[in-house]
Amino acid sequence: MRGWTGKLRAVSAIGLSLCGLLLGTQVVEAQESIEESRQRFEFAAGTWISTGDTRWAHNASSSSPLLGNPTSKLTYKDVGTNVLDLAGTYWFTPQLFGRLNIGVAGIGGGRLTDDDYLAADGGNPSSRTISNLSGDGMWYLNADVGGRVKSFANHRGWMDVFGGFQYWHTKYSAVGLGQVTCTSAGSTIDLEPSTPGPQPLCALGTSIDNGVKVITNTTNWYSIRLGGRTEYRLTRQFSLLGSVALLPVSIVENKDIHHLRDNLQQNPSISMLGIGVGADADLGARFMFTKNIGLNVGYRVWWNHAVDGKLTVYGVTGSAEYPLTQFDSLRHGFTAGINFTF
Question: Quick one: 3 and 151 in the same domain?
Fold first, then answer.
């Protein structure tokens, strides 16, 4: 009888041990599940010290054998534009996130170069004028959703993929004008022989005071984004960052107002619509001051290119359409900011 009692006590002890182990395992699993399902929010505030470049050209040679191809090319280049850049990432699950990025900046300096071409000059500018850029500004919005596809061993980092939408708006105001090139053909060929008096393309020495607004240019890009980003930790505090987004489909909408052209309408004088491609890239590094606060530095490049499009000139008495032979937007420069994780 005593033997059976001892055996029952042993069995009971083993059973209690197994129950305790099972309950402990369940508690640990529950804790891990809670930790894994914890939602995180990341916020970054910084600056993008950038230089911008927007250029477009069109071919109106079909309207007159006197005109070259391209017929006109305008280049807007700003310098030292400081963008306020804000980004927030919300993790719905440990693998799925949404990200919103907004940037805004004023543009207060740069130059517009306006080149016009006649067939007689064989591809060289027949006329070149320059104007100063006195404003205005730009802003953009990136809205993405994505997921984590890889975590590196030993907590060294991660890799995410994402897709989303980008809106990029830039507006330039050009003031004053200086005629720096006017060829013999540009100053002598009458472009409108049917009208009274000669109508040459340019006259060397022409100038307009800097207080006079000559052109307002507004560009909007609407793009689909597909890409990936990664972080690799070299130490607990220092890591390398990278992000690349391809823009397989972009639509560009552009409007120019030529304020001093009395033969053109004023809102707009010229409009463009095109379709293209592009790419965004960020490379940088992060230094973590604490577990939740870090400093980011890097370099960013954005590029959009139209592969096809049309340009419409709105005259006072009618309008005409021509092929858009070039439209490119480029912005690049150093980035810096503070990153917070909650």
Answer: no
